[in-house]
Amino acid sequence: MNTATASAAASPQSSREVWLISAGHGLTHWYTATFYLLLPLIGKELGLSYTEIGLIMTIQNLAGAIANVPGGMIVDTIGKKGYLMATSLFWVGFPYALMSLTHNFWMLLACVTLVGIGGNLWHPAAISTLAYRYPDRKGLMLSFHGMGGNVGEAAAPFVIGALLAWYGWRTVVVINVVPGLVMSALILVLLGAFSISHAGDKNAINAGAAARGFGDYLRDCTTLLRNKALILVACSSAFRTMTQVGLLTFLPVYLAYELNYSPFLVGIFLTALQVAGFIASPIGGHLSDKMGRKRVVTASMTLTAVMIVGMVLAGKSAAFVVFIALVGFFLYAMRSVLQAWAVESVPNNLAGAGVGIQFGITAIGAAISPALFGMIADAYDLYTGFYFLAGTIACANLLIFFMPNGEATQTKPVTAS
How many domains does the chain have? Predict the structure, then answer.
């Protein structure tokens, strides 16, 4: 299997896979970043409190948490990863268009629930594909995938912020469906063509899953719940994501409500955060392949906490922008590293389920954070909420101390059943 994987990794076709999958990942994050920018406008129009704004993101991420593990199992048992990625991308984008019809809080919650369910197929399909086609460069390849997300999150606030200068938010969410439809079609056609041209390759993206009993597969999946390395990495990822989602939800609110910035300027700040993350992602991924996962993750988490505190202390000064960029750099430097660390902790044939468990646990953290931040901000102020985020990244770092050194390991063989 390793020979086949290495061969696939060396082919020109596989480079197309990396960039196409990374671009698709960028679109999934494009929609999320768009919604973060729209939240202050929607909140004002609907008269929502900080707690209600936080609850919107909590419901979206809770839906993802519930759907992630079944999504990973679908990837393992069906295969057809290219088709699943195309389906996921469409499912993520379309509910945002439905938001143009919403006029109350509960309709909005229904739309974000659909988004949370649809996004659960992307990461198990994409991450397991890249990790096992590039067994010796997991960190770097997943960092390219992460960079795609950063590009989407960096470009969306800038583009959508400009559109909001001309159109209302309801018109913008309808226009915003178009990029997702185009990318879904590209993934469907190009990755489907790759599957046909490599029909005999068991590692082809759209190859069917191994023929094995579903009962045996479920028994194998239960062993993942006893996998200490996977659970520790997943729980650490959850605390890290609490920091990320809390920041992305309420930084735009802070800039719009407290500093009275326009949507365009808010978009510029969010772009700075993501550009820094884009630069950091391949650096973190490459260093983790060479130096080990634990060193990179521990350093990044420590510095993220320090930079968040610095951001709060900077207040309304010019240094605030610098700290935003530094938070983005260190926060995103570790994202692909944690993903690589988790996927190499499970057998090949359970990769989808392993990624699903990681993202399911991560989504629980993402669901908790905005609601807690909103309640803290309503009870105290937004600055206190940012201190809460510094505490969540510190908890993430604490869990990493219980992990082994985290040197990059060889891909585990597929277990027979």
Answer: 1
Q: What is the rounded CA–CA span in Å between residue 43 and residue 372?
A: 17
pLDDT, one tens digit per residue, over 249-304 is 888 888 888 878 888 888 888 888 878 888 888 888 888 888 888 888 989 999 98
Kindly report each contact of residues 313-319 with a partner whose C-beta sits within 8 Å and lies 24 or more positions away, as own/partner.
316/259
Domain annotation covers residue 259? yes
Q: For position 386, what pLDDT does the model report?
A: 87
Is the Cα torsion angle 108, 109, 114, 115 positive or negative in sign? positive
Q: Which of 249, 212, 174, 164 is nearest to 350 (CA)?
A: 212
94 belongs to a structural domain: yes
What's this model's pTM, rounded to 2 decimal places?
Answer: 0.69
Q: What percent of the chain has pLDDT over 70?
A: 86
How many Å separate Cα 304 from the centre of its chain?
A: 17
Asked, for residue 410, whether it belongs to a domain, the answer is no
Residues of the chain with pLDDT > 90, as a percent, come to 4
Structural domain range at position 348: 2-206+220-400
Give the dihedral of Cα atoms 258, 264, 266, 267; nearest 10 deg. Answer: 170
**Is the dihedral angle over the CA atoms 11, 15, 20, 22 positive or is it negative?**
positive
DSSP character for 258? I
Position 255: which residue type? Answer: L
Q: What is the DSSP string of 291-331?
A: H-HHHHHHHHHHHHHHHHHHHHHHTTSTHHHHHHHHHHHHH
CATH of the domain at 152: 1.20.1250.20
pLDDT in tens, 68-125: 777 777 777 776 777 888 888 888 878 888 888 888 888 888 888 888 787 777 878 8
In sequence order, the 6+-apart residues with CB closer than 8 A to the CB of 131 are 138, 141, 142, 340, 343, 344, 351
* pLDDT at position 208 over 70: no
Residue 134 within any structural domain of the chain: yes
Q: Quote the CA–CA distance of 207 and 136 in Å, as a whole number.
A: 22
